[in-house]
């Protein structure tokens, strides 16, 4: 591979120097300087001195090597882990150009390893067995628990042995439908230990969604718990699982065992509905098993997990990640983007049901031997100070969350923050959607006392780990910018014809060349993988996001350009919501768009055409919302149902979403040309009905 030093790198360094004069250098020299430049937050000298990557020059040097010599760079990273057998002569092979044949990505093929071994046994063997691996904080303040690395390994082995006894073998799928109990990462690690492929389904998905996933991956077992408390609400998970398993068996997929953890604080065992021939209480069987369980050694390219995510069309896609590359990539990104040190206490507020919880609650941190805080509840229960209470309680040093939470806490007022010390904090992180500059500043100034760099990490379920992210300490930050690519990542911005844009520009965000954490396929549908991600702009992986690059080379993500919306950092396909709506017997047609929302980033706005003769009523509206809640989950419920006697369509019948987006956001003077519509009057009707 040839390395073209893209002109913007040196330009960026020069511009930064020019713009802030000698300030960056002064900071590097350890002098205190105030930035008068509103949009530039200078690195902190104290921090940079001890950072893994202390300067932009050092980053450039490492970045250049990662692009010029990916095999050497990633082999060095991989060598920090245990491999039973080293990978073959070709560290990686890739083809991202659909016009040249099938898309095929492999990293460390032939290498034999196990990610659970590297998370647990390896850390224990190097003397950290008594270090806390997990601090668990319950929904109710005062309720907590913890596990050392030794104890975590024991628990993982017991469950792994139970799974094996029940016939789970290498390559078998296991569905995990659990809330944020310690059993959730334990279950993931137990599957990984025996080479089983876990598929965690966020415990906020409905029975229908769970059923769909069960039918798709045909698990040997389902792991769940009876109920969970979120804030004041009790959620009966077992009922949801029962309904999903009934549905899947009617569709020919029967699951033999439903291993159910008794979460008696939320619901008593005797109140739980039970099917004797299928259901087993976790606590009755798992603790009886041996605390030693041999590792199943797997190839680097053997599958590790499936995670279903939303796309712009059709049903959710099973994103498949394999073992070796994912392991190295999550470990390295965690270490560098959070400047992780062994003395850190790390807390990520994401649920393990999403990719963030896979890569940066479980695998990335544990591979680094970190102490991880796991929180069961909601972040504003019993009051909006809960996060900082938890930060102080565990002396959290790295805090990673989503802009939606930052915005909602910001609205609740500074007093909830400042009443806590927070002095343990040293790095903050953001993920899930673009963080707007005002939220960024509040996070930086109020939560972090203007002391902690913010890693605004851009990435996706598909990418496995961070793609564009600040390396704290290394360079000046701009509020709202995810800054520069991680090692080995070559982001490119292309125009609609797929031409790479240089310098200051704006367009579609793609990635050139593969990186170890990239997903390898969509489960059972490699063709969809190729067409969805690699055919829009041949030669590149297309992310689905828009992005601009400023004169200093900083990247600014601008949101999805496809029909995917991001509600509170949760990814939802408009097509999924539409199909949930049209399942309602009185709904003839539906079109869903995202609109800007102060707290959630985006909210769901649905245009609904009722069947002939059905009138608008509040009950109808409620039952439409309910339809989405039961088909997908509460988090996908539309905020607004807009009555639509008709939808704006072209003469060929295509819905013009552009117009619907403008109506939804009340940008009525920007509707553009409506003359190509089959019936332009529809638009006026919609405007008239906007506020009913
Ligand atoms: C969005 C979550 C801007 C983006 C890790 C992406 C972001 C989608 C950021 C993936 C960020 C995530 N800045 N946008 N820092 N992080 N996104 O698969 O639109 O749930 O395509 O992965 O979230 O969502 P997913």
UniProtKB/TrEMBL annotation:
Q: Identify the InterPro entries for this entry.
A: Ac_CoA_lig, ACAS_N, AMP-bd_C, AMP-bd_C_sf, AMP-binding_CS, AMP-dep_synth/lig_dom, ANL_N_sf
List the Gene Ontology MF annotations in alphabetical order: acetate-CoA ligase activity; AMP binding; ATP binding
The catalysed reaction is: acetate + ATP + CoA = acetyl-CoA + AMP + diphosphate
Where does the AMP-dependent synthetase/ligase domain start and stop, copy by copy?
127-514
Q: Which UniProt keywords apply?
A: ATP-binding, Ligase, Nucleotide-binding, Phenylpropanoid metabolism
Keyword Ion transport applies? no
Pathway note = Phytoalexin biosynthesis; 3,4',5-trihydroxystilbene biosynthesis; 3,4',5-trihydroxystilbene from trans-4-coumarate: step 1/2
Q: Could you tell me the Gene Ontology terms of the biological process aspect for this record?
A: acetyl-CoA biosynthetic process from acetate; phenylpropanoid metabolic process
What is an example of a Pfam family matching this protein? AMP-binding_C
Q: Which residues form the AMP-binding enzyme C-terminal domain?
A: 576-654
Q: Where is the Acetyl-coenzyme A synthetase N-terminal domain?
A: 59-119
- Recorded E.C. number(s)? 6.2.1.1
Which family is it part of?
Belongs to the ATP-dependent AMP-binding enzyme family.
Can you say what this protein is called? Acetyl-coenzyme A synthetase
Q: What species was this sequence derived from?
A: Artemisia annua (Sweet wormwood)
